[in-house]
Design brief:
Blueprint lengths: L3 E6 L3 H11 L5 E7 L2 H11 L3 E5 L7 H8 L7 E5 L3 H12 L4 E4 L5 H19 L32 E6 L3 H9 L8 E6 L5 H12 L3 E4 L10 E4 L5 E7 L2 E7 L11 H11 L4 E5 L8 H9 L3 E5 L9 H7 L6 E2 L4 H10 L2
Helix pairs in contact: 8-9, 9-10
Length: 349
Protein backbone atom coordinates (compact mmCIF):
# COMPACT_ATOMS: atom_id res chain seq x y z
CA UNK A 1 0.00 0.00 0.00
CA UNK A 2 1.32 3.43 -0.97
CA UNK A 3 2.29 5.58 2.01
CA UNK A 4 0.83 9.08 2.32
CA UNK A 5 3.55 11.66 1.65
CA UNK A 6 3.34 14.75 3.87
CA UNK A 7 5.20 18.06 3.67
CA UNK A 8 5.21 20.10 6.91
CA UNK A 9 5.31 23.90 6.58
CA UNK A 10 5.96 25.84 9.80
CA UNK A 11 8.39 28.61 10.72
CA UNK A 12 9.17 26.98 14.11
CA UNK A 13 11.85 24.28 14.04
CA UNK A 14 10.42 22.86 17.29
CA UNK A 15 6.92 22.54 15.83
CA UNK A 16 8.27 20.99 12.61
CA UNK A 17 10.08 18.40 14.72
CA UNK A 18 7.03 17.66 16.91
CA UNK A 19 4.72 17.28 13.92
CA UNK A 20 7.24 15.10 12.09
CA UNK A 21 7.68 12.75 15.05
CA UNK A 22 3.92 12.62 15.66
CA UNK A 23 3.08 11.77 12.06
CA UNK A 24 5.81 9.12 11.82
CA UNK A 25 4.00 7.09 14.51
CA UNK A 26 1.58 6.07 11.73
CA UNK A 27 3.26 3.49 9.45
CA UNK A 28 1.06 4.60 6.54
CA UNK A 29 2.37 8.20 6.69
CA UNK A 30 5.75 9.34 5.38
CA UNK A 31 7.04 12.83 6.18
CA UNK A 32 8.93 13.56 2.97
CA UNK A 33 10.14 16.99 4.04
CA UNK A 34 9.69 20.18 6.02
CA UNK A 35 9.81 23.86 5.10
CA UNK A 36 10.23 26.94 7.27
CA UNK A 37 8.26 29.23 4.97
CA UNK A 38 6.06 29.11 1.85
CA UNK A 39 8.91 30.11 -0.48
CA UNK A 40 10.93 27.04 0.48
CA UNK A 41 7.71 24.98 0.46
CA UNK A 42 6.95 26.00 -3.13
CA UNK A 43 10.16 24.38 -4.38
CA UNK A 44 9.74 21.29 -2.20
CA UNK A 45 6.19 20.71 -3.45
CA UNK A 46 7.57 20.41 -6.98
CA UNK A 47 10.52 18.25 -5.97
CA UNK A 48 8.85 15.95 -3.45
CA UNK A 49 5.27 15.71 -4.82
CA UNK A 50 3.54 15.41 -1.41
CA UNK A 51 0.00 14.08 -1.07
CA UNK A 52 -0.86 16.36 1.88
CA UNK A 53 0.50 19.63 3.29
CA UNK A 54 0.31 20.75 6.91
CA UNK A 55 0.47 24.52 7.03
CA UNK A 56 0.99 26.94 9.90
CA UNK A 57 -1.63 29.67 10.05
CA UNK A 58 0.74 32.55 10.87
CA UNK A 59 4.20 32.78 9.34
CA UNK A 60 6.61 35.59 8.46
CA UNK A 61 7.22 36.64 4.83
CA UNK A 62 3.91 35.11 3.66
CA UNK A 63 1.04 33.90 5.84
CA UNK A 64 -0.83 30.66 5.24
CA UNK A 65 -3.83 32.30 3.59
CA UNK A 66 -1.78 34.20 1.03
CA UNK A 67 0.16 31.02 0.27
CA UNK A 68 -3.07 29.08 -0.30
CA UNK A 69 -4.39 31.74 -2.66
CA UNK A 70 -1.26 31.36 -4.76
CA UNK A 71 -1.05 27.56 -4.49
CA UNK A 72 -4.57 26.22 -4.97
CA UNK A 73 -5.43 27.64 -8.44
CA UNK A 74 -2.11 26.40 -9.84
CA UNK A 75 -1.32 23.25 -7.87
CA UNK A 76 -4.31 22.15 -5.74
CA UNK A 77 -3.37 19.85 -2.86
CA UNK A 78 -5.15 18.73 0.31
CA UNK A 79 -3.99 21.17 3.01
CA UNK A 80 -4.45 20.84 6.79
CA UNK A 81 -4.02 24.06 8.77
CA UNK A 82 -2.33 24.00 12.18
CA UNK A 83 -4.15 26.74 14.09
CA UNK A 84 -4.04 28.45 17.46
CA UNK A 85 -7.14 29.00 19.59
CA UNK A 86 -6.54 32.75 19.76
CA UNK A 87 -9.12 35.06 18.22
CA UNK A 88 -6.70 36.05 15.46
CA UNK A 89 -5.79 32.41 14.84
CA UNK A 90 -9.45 31.48 14.51
CA UNK A 91 -10.13 34.30 12.05
CA UNK A 92 -7.17 33.37 9.88
CA UNK A 93 -8.15 29.70 9.97
CA UNK A 94 -11.60 30.54 8.58
CA UNK A 95 -9.91 32.65 5.90
CA UNK A 96 -7.72 29.65 5.08
CA UNK A 97 -10.73 27.33 4.74
CA UNK A 98 -12.24 29.88 2.39
CA UNK A 99 -8.98 29.93 0.42
CA UNK A 100 -8.89 26.16 -0.08
CA UNK A 101 -7.66 24.42 3.08
CA UNK A 102 -9.54 21.17 3.62
CA UNK A 103 -9.54 21.09 7.43
CA UNK A 104 -7.54 22.14 10.49
CA UNK A 105 -6.25 21.02 13.86
CA UNK A 106 -5.70 23.32 16.84
CA UNK A 107 -2.63 23.61 19.01
CA UNK A 108 -3.26 22.90 22.72
CA UNK A 109 -3.68 25.97 24.91
CA UNK A 110 -3.50 24.17 28.27
CA UNK A 111 -2.18 20.84 29.62
CA UNK A 112 0.25 20.98 26.73
CA UNK A 113 1.65 17.43 27.00
CA UNK A 114 -1.73 15.70 26.97
CA UNK A 115 -3.17 18.23 24.52
CA UNK A 116 -0.25 17.75 22.13
CA UNK A 117 -0.71 13.98 22.09
CA UNK A 118 -4.42 14.41 21.36
CA UNK A 119 -3.67 16.96 18.64
CA UNK A 120 -1.13 14.66 16.98
CA UNK A 121 -3.57 11.75 17.06
CA UNK A 122 -6.18 13.97 15.42
CA UNK A 123 -3.59 15.14 12.88
CA UNK A 124 -2.70 11.56 11.91
CA UNK A 125 -6.37 10.68 11.47
CA UNK A 126 -7.08 13.77 9.38
CA UNK A 127 -3.99 13.30 7.20
CA UNK A 128 -5.24 9.81 6.32
CA UNK A 129 -8.69 11.11 5.46
CA UNK A 130 -7.81 14.29 3.58
CA UNK A 131 -5.27 12.43 1.46
CA UNK A 132 -8.37 11.23 -0.43
CA UNK A 133 -9.92 14.70 -0.63
CA UNK A 134 -11.12 16.07 -3.95
CA UNK A 135 -9.64 19.57 -4.31
CA UNK A 136 -9.63 19.71 -8.11
CA UNK A 137 -12.34 22.39 -8.23
CA UNK A 138 -9.89 24.94 -6.79
CA UNK A 139 -8.01 24.91 -10.09
CA UNK A 140 -10.90 26.96 -11.53
CA UNK A 141 -10.78 29.67 -8.85
CA UNK A 142 -9.59 33.15 -9.77
CA UNK A 143 -8.98 35.24 -6.64
CA UNK A 144 -8.59 38.36 -8.76
CA UNK A 145 -12.33 38.52 -9.44
CA UNK A 146 -15.04 39.36 -6.93
CA UNK A 147 -16.13 36.05 -5.39
CA UNK A 148 -18.99 37.49 -3.35
CA UNK A 149 -22.01 35.18 -3.53
CA UNK A 150 -24.82 36.12 -5.88
CA UNK A 151 -27.87 37.10 -3.82
CA UNK A 152 -30.65 34.52 -3.86
CA UNK A 153 -33.47 35.49 -6.21
CA UNK A 154 -35.98 32.68 -5.75
CA UNK A 155 -38.88 33.59 -3.46
CA UNK A 156 -41.13 31.45 -1.30
CA UNK A 157 -44.21 32.25 0.70
CA UNK A 158 -42.96 32.67 4.26
CA UNK A 159 -43.68 29.52 6.24
CA UNK A 160 -42.21 27.92 9.35
CA UNK A 161 -43.86 24.51 8.90
CA UNK A 162 -40.76 22.86 7.50
CA UNK A 163 -37.50 22.58 9.44
CA UNK A 164 -34.23 21.80 7.61
CA UNK A 165 -31.37 20.05 9.40
CA UNK A 166 -27.91 19.96 7.78
CA UNK A 167 -24.86 17.97 8.84
CA UNK A 168 -21.35 18.61 7.49
CA UNK A 169 -17.72 17.97 8.33
CA UNK A 170 -14.55 18.12 6.22
CA UNK A 171 -15.04 20.65 3.43
CA UNK A 172 -18.33 21.70 4.98
CA UNK A 173 -17.60 25.36 5.56
CA UNK A 174 -17.43 26.08 1.84
CA UNK A 175 -20.30 23.69 1.03
CA UNK A 176 -22.54 25.38 3.60
CA UNK A 177 -21.69 28.79 2.20
CA UNK A 178 -22.64 27.61 -1.30
CA UNK A 179 -26.00 26.28 -0.09
CA UNK A 180 -26.98 29.05 2.30
CA UNK A 181 -26.09 31.96 0.02
CA UNK A 182 -28.36 30.46 -2.64
CA UNK A 183 -31.41 30.46 -0.33
CA UNK A 184 -33.86 33.36 -0.09
CA UNK A 185 -34.77 35.16 3.13
CA UNK A 186 -38.14 33.39 3.11
CA UNK A 187 -36.59 29.92 3.38
CA UNK A 188 -37.66 27.57 6.19
CA UNK A 189 -35.70 27.49 9.45
CA UNK A 190 -32.37 25.68 9.24
CA UNK A 191 -30.35 24.01 12.00
CA UNK A 192 -26.76 22.96 11.31
CA UNK A 193 -24.08 20.79 12.81
CA UNK A 194 -20.65 21.52 11.33
CA UNK A 195 -17.84 19.63 13.03
CA UNK A 196 -15.78 22.44 14.54
CA UNK A 197 -14.10 23.19 17.88
CA UNK A 198 -15.43 25.68 20.41
CA UNK A 199 -14.77 29.29 19.45
CA UNK A 200 -14.77 28.77 15.70
CA UNK A 201 -18.52 28.30 15.23
CA UNK A 202 -19.47 31.78 16.42
CA UNK A 203 -17.03 33.38 13.98
CA UNK A 204 -18.24 31.08 11.21
CA UNK A 205 -21.88 32.00 11.91
CA UNK A 206 -21.06 35.72 11.92
CA UNK A 207 -19.26 35.36 8.60
CA UNK A 208 -22.21 33.55 7.01
CA UNK A 209 -24.61 36.14 8.42
CA UNK A 210 -22.76 38.82 6.43
CA UNK A 211 -23.11 36.80 3.22
CA UNK A 212 -26.61 35.32 3.38
CA UNK A 213 -30.12 36.64 2.84
CA UNK A 214 -31.16 34.56 5.86
CA UNK A 215 -30.17 35.48 9.42
CA UNK A 216 -27.37 33.24 10.76
CA UNK A 217 -26.19 32.87 14.37
CA UNK A 218 -24.57 30.39 16.73
CA UNK A 219 -27.40 28.56 18.46
CA UNK A 220 -28.29 29.00 22.13
CA UNK A 221 -30.84 27.09 24.20
CA UNK A 222 -34.28 28.56 23.61
CA UNK A 223 -33.65 30.01 20.14
CA UNK A 224 -36.88 29.76 18.17
CA UNK A 225 -36.83 28.14 14.74
CA UNK A 226 -38.59 30.48 12.33
CA UNK A 227 -38.44 31.05 8.59
CA UNK A 228 -35.43 33.03 7.43
CA UNK A 229 -33.27 31.89 10.36
CA UNK A 230 -30.19 29.65 10.44
CA UNK A 231 -28.85 28.29 13.76
CA UNK A 232 -25.44 26.62 13.99
CA UNK A 233 -24.48 24.24 16.80
CA UNK A 234 -21.76 25.69 19.06
CA UNK A 235 -18.44 23.88 18.98
CA UNK A 236 -18.00 21.10 21.54
CA UNK A 237 -21.72 20.96 22.44
CA UNK A 238 -24.66 19.01 21.03
CA UNK A 239 -27.69 20.63 19.40
CA UNK A 240 -31.21 19.21 19.61
CA UNK A 241 -34.54 20.46 18.28
CA UNK A 242 -37.43 20.40 20.77
CA UNK A 243 -41.12 21.14 20.26
CA UNK A 244 -43.46 22.97 22.59
CA UNK A 245 -46.96 23.04 21.19
CA UNK A 246 -46.57 24.07 17.58
CA UNK A 247 -43.29 25.90 18.12
CA UNK A 248 -39.76 24.54 17.69
CA UNK A 249 -36.75 25.60 19.75
CA UNK A 250 -33.10 24.68 20.00
CA UNK A 251 -31.64 22.95 23.03
CA UNK A 252 -27.88 23.00 23.61
CA UNK A 253 -26.56 20.17 25.78
CA UNK A 254 -23.29 18.67 26.97
CA UNK A 255 -22.64 14.96 26.86
CA UNK A 256 -20.32 12.33 25.49
CA UNK A 257 -19.18 12.37 21.90
CA UNK A 258 -21.53 10.55 19.52
CA UNK A 259 -20.10 8.95 16.36
CA UNK A 260 -16.80 10.43 17.54
CA UNK A 261 -18.08 14.01 17.51
CA UNK A 262 -19.47 16.77 19.69
CA UNK A 263 -21.51 18.39 18.21
CA UNK A 264 -22.84 15.32 16.44
CA UNK A 265 -25.04 15.25 13.36
CA UNK A 266 -26.56 12.04 14.70
CA UNK A 267 -27.83 13.80 17.84
CA UNK A 268 -29.43 16.58 15.78
CA UNK A 269 -31.03 14.21 13.26
CA UNK A 270 -32.50 11.92 15.93
CA UNK A 271 -34.13 14.92 17.60
CA UNK A 272 -35.52 15.93 14.21
CA UNK A 273 -37.00 12.45 13.73
CA UNK A 274 -38.58 12.52 17.19
CA UNK A 275 -39.78 16.13 17.31
CA UNK A 276 -40.32 17.26 13.71
CA UNK A 277 -41.21 14.05 11.87
CA UNK A 278 -42.89 14.59 8.49
CA UNK A 279 -42.15 18.32 8.55
CA UNK A 280 -38.38 17.68 8.53
CA UNK A 281 -35.86 17.86 5.70
CA UNK A 282 -32.47 16.24 6.35
CA UNK A 283 -29.30 17.07 4.41
CA UNK A 284 -25.82 15.52 4.64
CA UNK A 285 -22.91 17.40 3.08
CA UNK A 286 -19.23 16.58 2.53
CA UNK A 287 -17.33 15.05 5.42
CA UNK A 288 -15.30 12.10 6.62
CA UNK A 289 -16.83 9.22 8.54
CA UNK A 290 -20.49 8.31 8.95
CA UNK A 291 -21.90 10.75 11.52
CA UNK A 292 -25.62 11.21 10.88
CA UNK A 293 -26.02 8.36 8.38
CA UNK A 294 -28.11 6.06 10.59
CA UNK A 295 -30.10 8.91 12.10
CA UNK A 296 -30.94 10.24 8.62
CA UNK A 297 -32.50 6.86 7.86
CA UNK A 298 -34.57 7.19 11.04
CA UNK A 299 -35.72 10.62 9.84
CA UNK A 300 -36.71 9.12 6.49
CA UNK A 301 -38.70 6.30 8.09
CA UNK A 302 -40.59 8.93 10.11
CA UNK A 303 -41.66 10.68 6.89
CA UNK A 304 -38.92 13.30 6.45
CA UNK A 305 -37.50 14.22 3.05
CA UNK A 306 -33.77 13.57 2.78
CA UNK A 307 -30.83 14.18 0.47
CA UNK A 308 -27.03 14.19 0.40
CA UNK A 309 -24.20 15.74 -1.59
CA UNK A 310 -22.81 13.79 -4.55
CA UNK A 311 -19.29 12.40 -4.84
CA UNK A 312 -18.03 14.72 -7.57
CA UNK A 313 -18.74 17.92 -5.63
CA UNK A 314 -17.77 16.56 -2.18
CA UNK A 315 -14.32 17.28 -0.79
CA UNK A 316 -14.61 14.01 1.16
CA UNK A 317 -17.35 11.60 0.09
CA UNK A 318 -17.64 9.85 3.44
CA UNK A 319 -20.72 11.05 5.32
CA UNK A 320 -22.86 11.54 2.17
CA UNK A 321 -21.85 8.12 0.83
CA UNK A 322 -22.80 6.37 4.05
CA UNK A 323 -26.05 8.32 4.29
CA UNK A 324 -26.99 7.10 0.82
CA UNK A 325 -25.75 3.51 1.11
CA UNK A 326 -27.56 2.97 4.43
CA UNK A 327 -30.84 4.14 2.95
CA UNK A 328 -31.04 7.53 4.65
CA UNK A 329 -30.66 9.84 1.67
CA UNK A 330 -33.27 9.62 -1.07
CA UNK A 331 -30.91 11.02 -3.71
CA UNK A 332 -27.45 12.54 -4.22
CA UNK A 333 -27.18 16.10 -5.56
CA UNK A 334 -24.31 18.32 -6.75
CA UNK A 335 -23.61 21.05 -4.21
CA UNK A 336 -24.99 23.81 -6.44
CA UNK A 337 -28.32 21.97 -6.81
CA UNK A 338 -28.95 21.39 -3.10
CA UNK A 339 -30.51 24.78 -2.35
CA UNK A 340 -33.08 24.28 -5.12
CA UNK A 341 -33.71 20.71 -3.94
CA UNK A 342 -34.44 22.00 -0.42
CA UNK A 343 -36.82 24.62 -1.79
CA UNK A 344 -38.57 22.05 -3.99
CA UNK A 345 -39.05 19.74 -1.00
CA UNK A 346 -40.36 22.68 1.02
CA UNK A 347 -42.86 23.62 -1.68
CA UNK A 348 -44.03 20.03 -2.25
CA UNK A 349 -45.44 19.83 1.29
Amino acid sequence: MKRIKVLIIDDSALVRNILSQGLRLDPDIEVVGTASDPYIARDKIIALEPDVLTLDVEMPRMDGVEFLRKLMPQHPLPVLMVSSLTGRGQQITLDALEAGAVDFVTKPSSDVMRGMNEMLAELREKVREVSKANVSSWRKIDYRVDRAPIPATRRLTASSEKIVAIGASTGGTQALQRVLTALPATSPAIVIVQHMPSGFTRLFADRLNDLCAMSVKEAETGDRLTFGRVLIAPGDRHLKVVREGGVYFTQIIDGEKVCGHRPSVDVLFRSMADQVGTHAIGVVLTGMGSDGADALKVMRTRGARTLAQDEESSVVFGMPKEAFLRGGAEKLYPIDSIADAILDMTASG
